[in-house]
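I am hoping you can look over what I have pasted underneath with an eye to the fold:
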Amino acid sequence: MDISGQTALVTGGGSGLGEATARALAAKGARVAVLDIGLERAQAVARDIGGIALGCDVTSAEGAEAAVARAAEELGGARILVNCAGIVAGKRTVGKEGPHPLDLFRKVIEVNLVGSFNMIRLFADRAAKLEPLAGGERGVIVNTASVAAFDGQIGQVAYSASKGGVVGMTLPLARDLARSGIRVVTIAPGIFKTPMVAGMPADVQESLGEVVPFPPRLGEPSEYGALAVHIVENQMLNGETIRLDAAVRLPPK
């Protein structure tokens, strides 16, 4: 898909991977709606890139629908959706304080997995009604998983489960939406310089950085944004999860 002139929705667009993706899409000529639960952060990014900022809780059916509708009214029907909204929680199944809080497990699943699907269903319903572009394409969805979906560490049970769900729904989503000309691809980042990683304990961050083979560093959000742009532009990418991880395989802890 030629990105120039298209409308893109980016959840979690106020910081980290979402911000980098919003900037990368705007640099390619997209009209970008920056969606984030933190409206002030989204507004700062939107001002920089000439987009619009919309407060959006991806777990809310009504709130997400309102955000998607507002984006369509102001920028036109969206053909690009990038799901970057997410949270992390570090808790063992059974720790010193007892069993993993069930409400915390539910919250992580609700934001990372259910929230992604919520945005997908609303976006796809509208995109499927747009006129097809070259090759019959109507839209592209890029989801964010994590290498934790495949080699989750101790204390990542909720996070790994949520990201494993994102990986697991990628192919059936692509098959479901093929008749509408909508592609679905998931990126599974390794260890990136994001606010999520910055919020982890220092010893955890240090241990994560030590295991990256090459290049031996944390990933830059702009590198995620560059891959998201390529996915949108490359029509043969569909139904797949791409690890963006510098060959890292996470140890147990």
Notes: The chain has one domain: 7-244. The mean pLDDT is 95. The longest helix spans residues 102-127. The longest strand covers residues 182-189.
